[in-house]
Structures are given as C-alpha cells and as structure tokens.
Amino acid sequence: MSLAKALFTSTLARRGLPIQRVAVASNIRWYSSDKRLTEDTMSQNIRNMEYAVRGQVVIAADALQHELEENPQSHTYTKVLYTNVGNPHQVGQESLQWPRQVMALCNLPPSKGIDHPELAKVFPQDVIDRAREISHVGLGDQGTGAYSHSQGHLAFRQDIAKFIEQRDGGVTSNPEHIFMCNGASSGIEMILDVLLNGPDAGIMIPIPQYPIYSAAIACHGAHQVGYYLEEEKGWSMDMDHLEQQLADAKAKGINVVGFVLINPGNPTGQVLTRQALCDVVTFCAKHKLVLLSDEVYQDNVYDENAEFVSAKRAAWETGLLEQDAIELISFHSTSKGLYGECGHRGGYMEVVGMDASVEGHLYKLASSGLCPNLDGQILMDLMVRGPDPWTESHREHEAQKRKIYDELKAKAKLMTEGLNSIDGFSCQPAQGSMYCFPAIEMPPGAIAAAKQQGMAVDTYYALSLLESTGICVVPAAGFGQKPGRHGFRTTFLPSIDDMKQAIKDMRKHHEEFCARHSEESSKVA
Amino acid sequence: MSLAKALFTSTLARRGLPIQRVAVASNIRWYSSDKRLTEDTMSQNIRNMEYAVRGQVVIAADALQHELEENPQSHTYTKVLYTNVGNPHQVGQESLQWPRQVMALCNLPPSKGIDHPELAKVFPQDVIDRAREISHVGLGDQGTGAYSHSQGHLAFRQDIAKFIEQRDGGVTSNPEHIFMCNGASSGIEMILDVLLNGPDAGIMIPIPQYPIYSAAIACHGAHQVGYYLEEEKGWSMDMDHLEQQLADAKAKGINVVGFVLINPGNPTGQVLTRQALCDVVTFCAKHKLVLLSDEVYQDNVYDENAEFVSAKRAAWETGLLEQDAIELISFHSTSKGLYGECGHRGGYMEVVGMDASVEGHLYKLASSGLCPNLDGQILMDLMVRGPDPWTESHREHEAQKRKIYDELKAKAKLMTEGLNSIDGFSCQPAQGSMYCFPAIEMPPGAIAAAKQQGMAVDTYYALSLLESTGICVVPAAGFGQKPGRHGFRTTFLPSIDDMKQAIKDMRKHHEEFCARHSEESSKVA
Q1: Same domain for A379 and A512?
Q2: Which GO terms describe its molecular function (chains A, B) (predicted)?
Q3: Contact: A145, B340; criterion CB under 8 Å
C-alpha cells in the first residue's frame, strides 16, 4: 500500500464513517486531480462577462461586514452601508402591510387556512376576501404549490393588462402577450436569448447602462453597441448620435437587432420626455430594431415637472402601434416602485408586435423553466391591482405608499445636493429611479496608483471609500461612461440620518483621498 | 391625407383617447410592418430547441380544457387529466401544513406580524418559533422583501449542508459551495452556461432523458452525446456502451465536457444501484467529465430493495472525493419528494471539486440574476430541516408525509401494473420518481398516418389519446428512445380513482387506435 493510500484509508477510519459501505476503498484506483473545467476551458463568454453591481467592491464589503461582526472595534465605523444595489428592505424600508397579509393567507393550506375564524381577528375582511379570490380565481384552486401556466396564471395577466391600459390612457393590452417572470432580470435574459443569433448580432445600449444588459450580451458573445447619454443635458438622448452609432456598427458588420431603453434611468436617474420617447420609438421603427424598454422605475418619478411615458404609449402616439410597425418588449418588476419587494422576484414583460411564430418560441423557452414563482406572481398581481377604494385596507395602504414616496423624493434631493456640495463632485438631479451617478474629478496620482494595481481608477476609489467609511458603492466603470469620466453609483435608499452621515463621510474621504494622491507620483497609502 | 391615414386618425378619435396628448398624430410617418424578428432571423438555437413536457400535446390539452369549460357536454369526458408534468398539487395532492404555516408567518410584516397574540390561537407555538428564527437568523431581520446573498442566505445553506452530511453518512458538505436557485432548472441552466464553451462542446445525457438537458444544450448550439439506458434491464447503465459512445463522440471531434446522471430516473423511474453509481463516478473521473447529478427524486424511492445513493457518496466511497479527482454538481428541489411544492421554485445545487476561479465565475453568473426567490429559499430550508421531534407539529407533519409516500408507492404499482395489463404495452417497474414510461407497439397504419401528417408517431398517438380520453401524456419521442421504440411518459400523480379510470380509458383507446390503424394503408380517422 502506498503512503498516499495508507493515509487515505486511515482518514476513512478517523472520520468514523460506516466502513462497510465503502465498497471499493480497499481497492482504490487513483485519478488525476487536474480540473476539466478551468478558466481556459470554461465558457469564455461567461468568463468575460462582468457584473459590477455584485462585483469586486461588494465582495470586499461582505468580507468587511464579516470582520465588523467579529470585531466591532476594528474600524471607525460599525457597519457597512450598502448602497450598491437597489434593495430598499435591506436598508430599512418596511414592507407594505397589505400585500404581505394577502400573500401570507394565500400560502395557508386549506385545513388551517383562510377560513380559520381566529384569522378574522388579525386580518381585515378585505384581505381575507382578496386571498380567497386569488386562491379560487387566480390560482384556480391549485394553490401556490402547483406550477402555473408558463406565462403565469391568466387571471393575474388579465389584471396586469388592465393596469397597463389604465396607465397608458386606454391603449389596449392583451394578457396573451404578457409573460410573468422571476423579476425583470429573467425576462430580459429570455428576450436576449431569443433575439441574439450568433456572434455578429448586436444590441444598442445606453452608456451608462444597468449591467444586466452588457452581461447578457457578453454571455452570448454578441456585440454591445453603446450610445452615450448626454450628462450635461440631464442624461438626455441625442438622436444624431444614435444614428451615427448605428451606422458605425453596421459599417463594422454588426447585425444590430435591438435597442435598450432604460426609463427612468438606471444608473442615471433621468426621466425621459414625451418627445424623447416618441423619437426613440420612431428610430426603432425606422431601423427595424426590437425595442427593449426597461420601465421598472415607472413609479419612481420625483421631479414635479417630469412624467413617466411608457414606450408603448409613445408607440401609440406616433401611430406606430396601429401601423404594426414596432416590435416592443417592456419590463416591470415588484422589486422597485414603492413596493421594493426584491426578494420575491416578481416581474412581467409585455410583448407587442412580435411575430407570432417567434412568440411561440419565446413561450417554449419560458416553458423550459416551467413557470415564474407563484409568490412573485401574487405580489405582481397585488401591485397592479391594489385594495379596492372602499375597503378597510385602502386608506392605510395608500398612506404607507405615500410615506415611502415622500421619503424617496426627499432622499433623492438630499443625496443629489449632498454630492454636489462636495468639491470635485458633480451630480445630475435624480428625477426618478433610486440612484445618483456623480462624476468625480480624480487626482492624477490616483490614476497612476490604480494603474499600478491593475484596476480601473473607479474601482480603486470605491475600495478606498469602502475601507475608510464602510460605504459600499459601485464603481461607475461597471455601468460604462465616456472615456476620462470617473465616479460611482449610489442608491439613495438608506435612512435620512444614514445618508447625511454618508455625505459627510464621502466628503472627508474625498479630501483625504485627494491629499493622498495629489501628485502623479504619489504612492498608495 | 391618404385613406389609411384618415382611417387611422378617425380610429384615434373613436377610441376617445386624449387627443391633446397625441403629439404627432397629425403628422404621421409610415413605416413598414415587416418584422425584424422572424423564425429565420431569431436565434436559431432557440428555434431548434425542443421542450416536449409543455409542447404540442399540452397546448392542445389546454385548448381542450378551455373547450370543456365553455361546453362541458362537448366530449365524453368532462376534464383534461394532466399527467404530462410532475405537478402533484395540480392533480390533488394537498400541501403539507407545517411548511406553509411557517412560510405564511415569515411573510407577515412586523407591525401585524409574528407577534400578534391572536396568531397563537391559530398556529402551534413551534411554528411561530421557527418563523421567528427564520426572520431573525435566516433572513438577518431583512425580511423576505430584500435580495439575499446571490447563493441564498447563509443560514439556509448551512442547514442544507447539514442535511447533505446526514444523508451521506457524514461526508462533509460546505455551505460556501451550495447555490440555492429558482428550482433545480435554473441551476442546471447556469451550470451548462458555464460548462459549454462553443459549438464543439458536448454533454453526455441518458436516453431517455428529462428534456431540460437537451433543451439547454440546444440553446448553446452544443452537442448532446446520448447514452442509452437498458430498458430490458430495468433502465440500467451499460458501462461498455458508455465508453463506446464517448469514444465515438471524441472521434467526431466533439469536446465532451460533462455527463448527466438522473437518479432516480426521469422519465424512466429506475433507482440506480450503489455499484452503478460507483461505476459512473469512476467513469467521470477517468475521462475528466464534469458530473451533473440530477437527484431531485431522492425522496421518491418506493421499491423496498432499492436505496438512493448520492453521486457524492459514491465519489467518497470510491475514494475520488478525497483524491479531489471529480468535479460534481448535484441538484435538489422542493418541487418533488413529498413536498411537491413546484410553484415556489425552490432548489439548490452543491458544487464539489470545482476550480475556485470557475466557481467565482459561477457566483458572478448567479449574481446577475441577483438571488433566488426568498419564498423558495425558505421552503428549501424547511424541507431539509423539518420540525424538531419534540414539537407539536412534528407528529402530524411526519404523518402527512407518510400518507403521501404511501399513496405514491401504491400509485406507482397501480400504474405500472395497469399499463402492463394493456395488450401491446410494456412498462418497467417505477422503483422511484413520479413517472411510468411504457413502450407501446404501434400498428403499422399509425406510423404511416403520422408520417403523412409530418409528426412523430408518438405525438400522433398522444394527440389521439388526448382527443379520445382527455388524458394528457408526453410523447416518448420528447425524451429520446431507441429507434423503433414508441410510447409516452405519464405521471402516477392523480388520485387512485382517476388513475384506475385512466387505465381503462387508455386500454379502450389503444384497442380502438389499433383497430383504426390495423392496416398500413389505413386512413386517419
């Protein structure tokens, strides 16, 4: 017996595992521990894909948080302030009460379920009634434990269609063309799966963008064709620039098939004008680009002079909808808005003007994942169809929503103004969404120091901010920006007190960072 | 103004939409309604992908069900009996009470939540205690509305690791290598995303197989390298055949990177022996194939002479685990077992022996979808860690599970025997899982008739069965089988009464079908 074998056999005995079950331990064959799967043999598309929202800085933040839990005295702060992801409940936003009550009742099994008399002492009658309706009509008496239709239960899709019609001033919506999904993310991925046909394919995306688009495009080894948003003009779009970018991509042999619009903007926070929307849908119709309209922040508009206009409404206003001249998919989610219910992964997409055969393939793809989760479906239904105005729950539900809205509005202003008050920071107003995306003047030494460490200066800066203050932001490079610009994305979701402190901390850090990197040759502290 | 324009403008007016908002209706430009996205321009991988479990026959079944609801007299039966998908709650299995009670409480918001005094009159104290523990420890007081760690909350992964260790007789499991996911499906898709690098890549899959594998492989335009299960020997594996298939694929230039094992079998229902498991893990180690072990039916073993052995346990018994000579990913789910909770999309995968950098990319991929849904995470936690033995809920929970198990066991036998009692049917015993996969002798006329209609004879048969009886099965062709074999997959999940009737109906249909197609030249009825 070789030494290795002897050691191995003694390990077996030491562990106290039932040796009699070890069929062949006495007659071991030895195989190489070389890996089949390495960075060189794995999917190179996945290897090359980036996803900054939970990238290097967040991994460092998680380690820091762990350290702080082990040893609260280890730093000048006692917790990590996560502003890297639009995750309102993580940073203290309380869930709305009514939808959670209905959800809870929908999950109770029949025997000790909705009809239990004591529950009437805990829940308003309208909550019990709505849960009964969902169980019977929505779920067709199959409960939350059965797979639904691959697109989600029809009754929920009917409610979504009604919501869309009302939102868009009567433009019709058909539940047959609504696909519920596990958050908007899974819908976006499905559409890109269908849309991208080989390495020549390209999609136009805004720069800056939310990185699920660049990530999904990279997964397919396809091209991202960026178009810049005009920062100085409130992150607006320049149609001439769009034409130019498209022409350049075509000239390079890229088969541009789609166009991504994010409105209200992520990470940029702008709310596009009606005219901009009409211009974009016209651009897509003219050039035959499938429009992916990310509208998950449609309820997050704080600027009183701004208004959310859906891409579908714009397609109707420009006549493109009735001409059947546009292929449009719009996305919505329970994770944003005033619900902020990220954990339940509720979402939908509405598919407009798609070729029927292609939509059949989309259905097939949705079917291979069987169905979106039922709790997310129920929550999506509750979000598009709140408590009836005459019910006990209605007033309180609306008041809770109002409170969250007012706070978000105040915090958007607070964060924008706070960032702009820091020398070297410049931040466009957050008209909507949950983010600020300041530009930061980097001292020359920082650029050199980051280069020396082989990382983008934005990442270098974000890691420094994290270490000094415990604030976790996402480097702007992860969203894309014009060459030479630097900065980060932060949410404005933490409490007002936390944000006031964060702005102070950011200012102090920036001053120290600039001092530390004031000369090009400065060494990293 | 052209007639088309005039008609369009009058439509606007007719709809009563707010005309003042129609910015450009008076100055409409006309664009082509040609589609960018057609079957020819969309992703050809998605176009070519098949997913039979919700394919043509199920779409026909849904239409039939709709027809029956509109007009219950339209057929000799009054409902569609869905046996196409392992969806227990859809066909009458009641949810277990304890996990649903805990889930419900976890979703209640703090203000009228777990601590409400009246709830103690509805729920046992141990349910309230467990929900409190989950809210505090599992969810870290963030509730179900926050995104979790991309792999799922650590406390849940710790419980999963403990479950795996206990199941595998002490073989260690590390929560850092567990990825919770939206059902096993999304885990399988993620792994194949990482594994498949370009069109030369191939994966060995059993024939017959569960079609998510062939579907996901097709999505990547990669190769499926089939290995046949030996039907006559209870769907066992022939190692010489595996060697041959691998050698043949390599000779064709296919870069075979992975191996799929489904145990207990889907659609085949066999439970592999300990020896077979040891042979498979050794085969994978020898040839450096990443092993994907689909173990979602591990709690569904009915044959008293059979035992579920995990691939990981076999890797330990063969010494491969301690040699670090195997790359293994195993999948589990809340959708099967005795929970049958399909709708909540709970699942996990355990990653063993994977290169650390590659696992980092897997984490990144998981992060791009943010996190698996929280309700599914909670349910997965409850499934791997039931009520404590001393609690009020324990006895009743175990009794409910036992009842479901006993029924499934009886139904497996009933369905196998029933199918074998039909002349021309031959069905291997379902030792486990939820399915029977009979072989059916097709009359020669049926093959000709199907060909004439351009479909597989299995599909032709399943559509005929559906129309005659209302029973919805999946054509065997959708899972793959040896050339010349025909049949279907059926679950044995409906009630015993429904299944007895189904067997009668299947027999009658088969006799009529054979009579109708007794001659090669017979016309389709």
Answers
A1: no
A2: L-alanine:2-oxoglutarate aminotransferase activity; pyridoxal phosphate binding
A3: yes
Q: Tell me: cis bond preceding B494? Omega within 30 of 0 counts.
A: no
> Does some domain include residue A117?
no
Interface test with B, best of A42, A111, A283 (most B CBs within 10 A): A42
**E strand intervals along A263-393:** 290-294, 328-333, 346-352
Mean pLDDT, rounded, for B389-403: 96
The answer to whether the Cβ–Cβ distance between B354 and A37 falls below 8 Å is yes
Q: What is the mean pLDDT of chain B?
A: 91
H-assigned helices in B288-391: 311-317, 356-368, 374-384
pLDDT single digits (tens) B413-465: 999 999 999 999 999 999 999 999 999 999 989 999 999 999 999 999 999 99
A10 pLDDT exceeds 90?
Answer: no
| Amino acid, single-letter form, for residue B206 | P
pLDDT at residue B50 tops 90: no
Residue B169's region, left for phi above 0, alpha for psi from -120 to 50, else beta, is left
Question: So what's the pLDDT on residue B42?
Answer: 94
Distances (CA, A) of A156 to A139, A168, A314, A379, A389: 9, 18, 25, 10, 19
Q: Residue B1: pLDDT above 80?
A: no
Report the residue from B21, B49, B193 with minimal CB separation from A43. B193
Does residue B369 share a domain with residue B328? yes
- Does B26 reside within a domain? yes
Written in H, E and C, the secondary structure of A50-88 is: CCHHHCHHHHHHHHHHHHHHHCCCCCCCCCCEECCCCCH
User: Could you say which residues from 332 to 361 on chain A have a Cβ atom under 8 Å away from some Cβ of chain B?
Assistant: 335, 339-345, 353-355, 357-358, 361
How far, in Å, are A171, B171, B212, B289, B341 from residue B335 at the CA level?
39, 25, 15, 28, 4
Chains A, B: CB contacts under 8 A, how many?
406
End-of-domain residue from the set B323, B349, B384 = B384
For residues B452 and B293, is the Cβ–Cβ distance under 8 A? Answer: no
B407 shares its domain with B339: no
Mind listing the pLDDT tens digit for each residue in B464-507? Answer: 999 999 999 999 999 999 999 999 999 999 999 999 999 999 99
Tell me how far apart the alpha carbons of residues A282 and A328 are, in angstroms, rounded to a whole number: 12
Q: Assess if residue B134 is contained within a domain.
A: no
Range of the domain at B312: 151-384
**Which residues, numbered 84 to 103 in chain B, qualify as contacts with chain A under a Cβ-Cβ cut-off of 8 Å?**
85, 87-90, 94-97, 100-101, 103
Q: What's the CATH code of the domain at A455?
A: 3.90.1150.10
Tens digit of each residue's pLDDT (9 = 90 or more) over A232-263: 999 999 999 999 999 999 999 999 999 999 99
H or E stretch including B75?
A: none
- Residue among B511, B147, B507 nearest A333 (CA): B147
Which of B357, B384, B411 lies at the terminal end of a domain, its last residue? Answer: B384
Q: Which helix (H) or strand (E) covers residue B346, if one does?
A: strand B346-352
Q: Could you tell me how many residues make up chain B? A: 525
Task: State whether A404 and A321 are in the same domain.
Answer: no
Give the Cα separation of B88 and B316 in Å (integer): 34
Flag whether residue A27 sits within 8 Å of chain B, measured between CB atoms. Answer: no
Query: How far apart, in whole angstroms, are the C-alpha atoms of residue A328 and residue A177?
Result: 11
**What pTM does this model have?**
0.92
Q: Looking at the structure, tell me whether residues B35 and B75 fall in a common domain.
A: no
Task: Extract the tokens encoding B312.
Answer: 């990981």
The CATH number that applies at residue B375 is: 3.40.640.10
Average pLDDT over residues A297-319: 96
State the number of CA atoms in the 13 A half-sphere of B407 facing the CB.
Answer: 19
Which of B217, B244, B188 is CA-nearest to residue B46? B217
Are A256 and A345 found together in one domain?
yes
A122 with B116: Cβ contact below 8 A = yes
- Do A345 and A293 sit in the same domain of this protein? yes
Q: How many domains does chain B have?
A: 3
| Residue B245 within a domain | yes
